[in-house]
Amino acid sequence: MSRILAPLGWLNQYLKQSTTIYMVLVASLIGLLGGYAAVAFRLLIQHLQQTLWNSPELPSEHYSLLEWLTTLDWYWIVSIPTGGGLIVGFLVYYGAPEAKGHGVPEVMQAVAVAHGRIRARVVAIKALASSICIASGGSVGREGPIVQIGSAMGSSCGQMLGLGPRRMRTLVGCGAAAGVAATFNAPVAGALFAVEVILGDFGVPQFSPIVISSVVATVVSRHFLGDFPAFEIPLYSMHHPAELLAYGVLGLLAGLVAIGFTRSVHSAEGMGERWKLFPPLKTMLGGLMIGIIALKVPEIMGVGYEAMNEALDGGYEALMFLVMLIAVKVLAVSITLGTGGSGGIFAPSLFLGAMLGGAVGVIVQQYFPGAAPPGAYALVGMGAMVASTTHAPITAIMILFELTTDYKIILPLMISSIIGTLVMSRLHGDSIYTIKLRGRGIKIRQGQDVNLLRSIKVEEVLRREPITVLPSERLSSMLQRLFRGAETSLYVVDENEVYHGVVALNALRPILEDADSMSNLLVAADTANADWPTVTTSETLDKVLQSLDAGYRDVMPVVDGDRLVGVVHLEDVLERYRMELFKNQMVDGLAESMPAADNRRDRHRVGDFVMAEIEVPQGLVGRTMKEMSVRQRYGLNVLLVRTEIAPGELSAPQPPEPDYCASTGDRFVVFGPERSVDRMQNS
After folding, report:
1. 296 touches 78 (CB < 8 A)
2. Could you tell me the pTM of the whole model?
3. Which fold has domain 449-573?
4. What mean pLDDT comes out for the span 98-109?
5. Three-class SS state of 193
6. Alpha-carbon span 233 to 400, nearest angstrom
7. Could you state, in order of their start, the residue ranges of all structural domains in the chain?
8. Buried b (16+ CB within 10 A) or exposed e, 662-673
9. Residues 307, 297: Cα–Cα separation, whole Å
10. The domain 17-225: what is its CATH number?
11. pLDDT above 50 for 596
């Protein structure tokens, strides 16, 4: 087998040298796989739906599931979601726990902190679990799962090809774009979703392969499913410029509903995590509750496209019915995801937007009969709700534009989407994706690279000799010390080195005009700011950077209990950030340029440092990267890790994960002083 694969490995290494051509080829492959996966996932849902509900053996557009449900006995409507929930629970619990929920936060987490690495088994488990959940009536969407499935495919391809983290992240974006594009028949929106939500980077090197992948996936989808939009959307337009006010109100309401929806889902997921019950039983009970609700409101079951099309056609004219659908849908989605179901929140967001827009349209029609029909407001509401919940207004606008291909709807769509996003971001801060990540300590919106600082402690950049003053020191003396030195702050400590606060030069400026009369009256204790935030040596630099940025400060005291032990400066944090960023970029290049079979032990000198590949010392075997503390113990950075997959055969180099556990025969690529390399190698 190795003789057969050797030429392919050589070809892969050769093509890697041509970045543009290589990424075009790989992106096309992922687009092809993502397109086929989206088509297969959609057909699987349709087949399971027909099987579970014993509905007509016809494509879904030829019959109405909502009408079919009215012909079934009540126990079928209750038992099928219950049984489906039980099966989904077992699949997720024993197959891949990360397949639980709506999937997109897991992809964002993989991009931000795991170098784009996603387990390959997620493809099968997520596809099967989500299709059963949706087909059996779970109140979730199919877009989130296909994003996770496509992203897992992209990540798996990158891992098999031995690509570094930078390219791996791009391929994850390619998979996400392929999934969205094939699902909505919207290639531009698919590409924008990947760069706006998943990667947060519109750079050309990342954007170009994503566009290619999105286009290829759309071609595959159109070949099998036809060139049709995801929804049956009549052509609408704005009848009068004054209607923009109504669309603005719709955007405001969309932002408020998005906040309630986001908090409801997040709270339900938190309650589900704390609920001490065997996970498959949780999903079974969730399915039972959905079935009971569906006895009265069947519109909330599944993806909900039929109800959305009805709203777009203006079929729902009762205001209270539309408001009731909004409330019950929020409850149903929260139950499904909170009890461990598998599915997305993109389609539920569209559902809520359609019903909210329809309700606003009914009110407008009641008082202004010449205005656009309720269906127009339902259409704009879909875009506004998606923009608000995801914090991705560009993607939302482009999806709705590609679905309608009508430029006349763009103005109200832009107004509602932007207002909704502003309301949501201003009053809530997190999107429905990032709120889940924030609970895990991952801050996406501050920039993905800020996570580079999460593993670095304050003590590594600590300055241990701050300028201190006693609480009784006079203002005149403090001013002289400030003007003579480069520091802009003094730190008040007593004789026992107990910290009392900070005297900042900016805080003294208001009294400098009358310094002559005040210099003998004011002392350090009177001018010290005791509320100045502090950190401890064990905290990480990402939290320090957030605190410094929030208060527009450039320095922060470091304390141990009530004692001052030093200060940390913004310039030192930024310098360390630049060093870590450079190291990561260097790691990307190394991981892609070093073939898996390379067992060289030579050293490469970089200034006063060397980069060397050494075997893991026996004293570190059996320990995780966190337990090794290589940086603290030896003064070295571990750039790459090769694991021994067979006697004398090493894997492709990969950046080390925090939970990586060293085994005999593994090798590290380290960077640092040569004497430190020798010390580690001989330990």
Report:
1. no
2. 0.73
3. CBS-domain (3.10.580)
4. 83
5. helix
6. 10
7. 17-225, 243-277+302-438, 449-573, 594-681
8. beebbbbbbbbe
9. 11
10. 1.10.3080.10
11. no
